């Protein structure tokens, strides 16, 4: 983990700011990590918090990077989200509260979870 301060709107790209700070989303199948097969750890683009291991990433067909497990229980926080007339569970960074995406209960074993995460909210640190 790093001790960096979360960036403000002048250091995030407009897309990152819209997603992480304004709870937006990127269009499906457009994010840089949707088809990524590289080995490493996915971190929060805002604060560097380690979020997901590449070994838990899978192709859900949803159009966003999907993971079946978080790196550690405190990596993310979950919140009720009833926007747009839907009942979902929002996923935010456990350190800086940046919006990452949502978690659903239609994922694969062993957890049955699908963390559907915006690529723009992530930074992959490849394994050496």
UniProtKB/TrEMBL annotation:
Gene encoding the protein: msrB
Cofactor(s) it depends on: Zn(2+)
GO BP field: protein repair; response to oxidative stress
Enzyme class: oxidoreductase
Molecular-function GO terms, alphabetical: metal ion binding; peptide-methionine (R)-S-oxide reductase activity
Domain of life: Bacteria
Record PANTHER family: METHIONINE SULFOXIDE REDUCTASE (PTHR10173), METHIONINE-R-SULFOXIDE REDUCTASE B1 (PTHR10173:SF52)
Keyword NADP: no
Keyword Zinc: yes
Keyword annotations of the record: Metal-binding, Oxidoreductase, Zinc
Name under which the protein is recorded: Peptide methionine sulfoxide reductase MsrB
Reaction(s) catalysed (UniProt annotation): L-methionyl-[protein] + [thioredoxin]-disulfide + H2O = L-methionyl-(R)-S-oxide-[protein] + [thioredoxin]-dithiol
PROSITE patterns: MSRB
EC number: 1.8.4.12
SUPFAM superfamilies: Mss4-like
Annotated family: Belongs to the MsrB Met sulfoxide reductase family.
InterPro entries named among the record's database cross-references: Met_Sox_Rdtase_MsrB, Met_Sox_Rdtase_MsrB_dom, Mss4-like_sf
GO cellular component terms, A-Z: cytoplasm
């Amino acid at each position: 983990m790093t001790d960096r301060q979360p960036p403000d709107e002048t250091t995030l790209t407009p897309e990152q700011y819209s997603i992480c700070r304004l709870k937006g989303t990127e269009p499906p199948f457009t994010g840089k990590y949707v088809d990524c097969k590289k080995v490493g750890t996915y971190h929060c683009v805002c604060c560097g918090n380690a979020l997901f291991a590449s070994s838990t990433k899978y192709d859900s067909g949803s159009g966003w990077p999907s993971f079946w497990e978080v790196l550690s229980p405190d990596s993310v926080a979950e919140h009720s989200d009833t926007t747009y007339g839907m009942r979902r569970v929002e996923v935010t960074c456990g350190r800086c509260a940046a919006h990452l995406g949502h978690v659903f209960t239609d994922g694969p074993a062993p957890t049955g979870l699908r963390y559907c995460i915006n690529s723009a909210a992530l930074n992959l640190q490849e394994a050496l």
